[in-house]
Amino acid sequence: MAFANAILTKDPTFGVIGLVPCAIGGTKISNWGKGTFHYKQLVMRAAASLQYGGTIQALLWYQGESDTVSEEDAKSYKAKLQRLFLNLRHDLQSPTLPIIQVALASGSGVFIDTVREAQLGIDLLNLRTVDAKGLPLQPDTLHLSTPAQVRLGEMLAETFLQFLPSTGPISSPTPIGGVGSCCNPMLQFLMVPLSSMMVLR
């Protein structure tokens, strides 16, 4: 993945990077609310990633295209997204967990600007926004082109490295070993919904 490759290019001593994908395409922000299936799966995967000594370093979030179809969804997006971030920090027991979200480059409907304004307007501690606007799209005018995806990964990596040293990682008390272990004593994981993903270290 471009994100991990970019980190290791900039810092070869960073160690092993684990990415915990939680993405589900075509979902609305309401599908990720606390108590929903997707939310429970995200938290469960995050917990499973810690079993062999990993540390969650950040949450990467790229979602919102489906919320541009309805004006009601677009207008309620900011409150729902902010609540989601706060709930995740609470349930992952990491109140200062770094979060890097992506501001939309495109959308499925006409309310793209409304959702983008919501994303850019969220003001939380340890939250950074990477703006994807202007990156090349595929012919469907919705999805990023392959070169654009690579560039976005690099942008996310540059932003992530600005957070280090981490202010509040989640670590597991279990010693590293067994399945999933390696020779490096630091196993790094990143959780990311692209819609979502976690970065582990």
UniProtKB/TrEMBL annotation:
Which residue numbers delimit the Sialate O-acetylesterase domain? 1-162
One annotated GO molecular function is: hydrolase activity
Spell out the protein name for this chain: Sialate O-acetylesterase domain-containing protein
Q: Which InterPro entries match?
A: Carb_Esterase_6, SASA, SGNH_hydro_sf
Keyword Hydrolase tagged: yes
Q: Which UniProt keywords apply?
A: Hydrolase
SUPFAM superfamilies to which the protein is assigned, alphabetical = SGNH hydrolase (SSF52266)
